[in-house]
Amino acid sequence: MELIRRPRRLRVNETIRNMVRENHLRVENLIYPMFVMPGEKKRVEISSMPGVYNYSLDEFILALKEVVELGIPSVLLFGIPESKDSVGSGAYHEQGIVQQAVRLAKEHYPNLYIITDVCLCEYTDHGHCGLIEKGQVLNDPTLDLLAKTALSQVKAGADMVAPSDMMDGRVAAIREMLDLEGFTNIPIMAYSAKFASGFYGPFREAAGSTPQFGDRRTYQMDPANGNEAMLETDLDIEEGADMVIVKPAMSYGDIIYRTKERYGIPVAAYNVSGEYAMVKAAAANGWIDEKRIVLEALLSMKRAGADLLITYHALDVAGWLREEG
User: Fold this and answer.
1) What residues are paired with 54 via a beta bridge?
2) Are 59 and 103 in contact (CB under 8 A)?
3) DSSP, residue by residue, 167-218
4) Where Mg(2+) is bound, by residue (predicted)?
């Protein structure tokens, strides 16, 4: 009699399914993105991202209490400045909103791992990630400002910097600046494969960073290209990146997989604002099981090769994982 292969034997109950499960979500995998802004007693919900807020510094510290109690090890900080200008000076000012937030966070929760986003778009009045001349985004003159931004954040107490601007050579510029100033132990998590995606819309509402003219396709990557993502990652690693980000995540599992297989270094998948908003909207309408969908989506990123998950779902996921014990 011919033998029948029966993979279902290892699915027969929850115990054996847990024993042979290939990928796992753990709270240690989570990085929670947070937005800070000037003012007091402000916790402003982002309309397109239910459950995500812009926090004044006093409210930010209160919100961190829940992050820490849930066991989430790290946050990724974005700042909304009081005013903007053409050179994004709020990004690298010693008393910039992110710099203040980092100092406060380290004062209250010294063991929380603070990652800071390094970019100019939230701080420029034109909304682009670099300096502008005659309608063009200037690459090389922007690099010094990005390096100054990273240095000011690290001096404030940031544990890691994450350049998201997609200017050529920015990782090298930041690495050189940090090393010259004695911060050789501060790692860089580069947004290496960052695509010019339609999934960023809600973030631009949150950060007030919609470009005032044109778009970001001259520096963020074409969603049609995979080999280009490998080139960008090659360059960032050569320049000193310790970790890399693939952004967005849900539609770019192939890029996560290729990155992990090719380089073997830690890879973070950024589960971006539009992905979050779609899940929240569908769940609010009763069309999907939110918990099941979120956990499945994040597991798919782990399965593709992600080590870390940057996600606005982090608080919910940490709570669900705790419930499951």
Assistant:
1) 35, 44
2) no
3) -TTHHHHHHHHHHHTT-TT--BEEEEEEB--GGGHHHHHHHT---SSS-STT
4) 232
Annotated catalytic residue, options 65, 84, 148, 247: 247
Q: What is the DSSP letter of 26?
A: -
**Is 41 an active-site residue?**
no
Report how far residue 240's alpha carbon sits from residue 194's, in angstroms, rounded to the nearest whole number: 17
Stretches in the chain below the pLDDT threshold 50: none
121 known member of a binding site:
yes
Distance of alpha carbon 50 from alpha carbon 13, whole angstroms:
36
| pLDDT on residue 215 | 67
Other C-beta atoms closer than 10 Å to the C-beta of 302 total: 19
Three-state secondary-structure class, residue 69: helix
Domains of the chain: 24-324 (3.20.20.70)
**Bridge partners, residue 133, by sequence:** 136
Q: pLDDT value at position 90? A: 87
Q: So what's the pLDDT on residue 113?
A: 98
d(CA 278, CA 228): 28
Q: Looking at the DSSP assignment, which residues form a beta bridge with residue 124?
A: 85
- According to the annotation, is 273 in a ligand binding site? yes
pLDDT at 231: 97
User: Is 129 annotated as ligand-binding?
Assistant: yes
Q: Is-contact 63 34, C-beta < 8 A?
A: yes
* Residue 119 annotated as lining a ligand binding site: yes
Alpha-carbon distance 249 to 278, whole Å?
A: 14
Identify the active-site residue in 194, 260, 280, 302: 194
CB proximity list for 102: less than 8 A, separation 6 or greater:
77, 114, 116, 153, 156, 157, 158
Distance (Å) of CA 39 to CA 33, 48, 54, 101, 231: 20, 22, 11, 12, 42
Active site residue 106: no
Unique residue bearing structure tokens 């309608």: 135
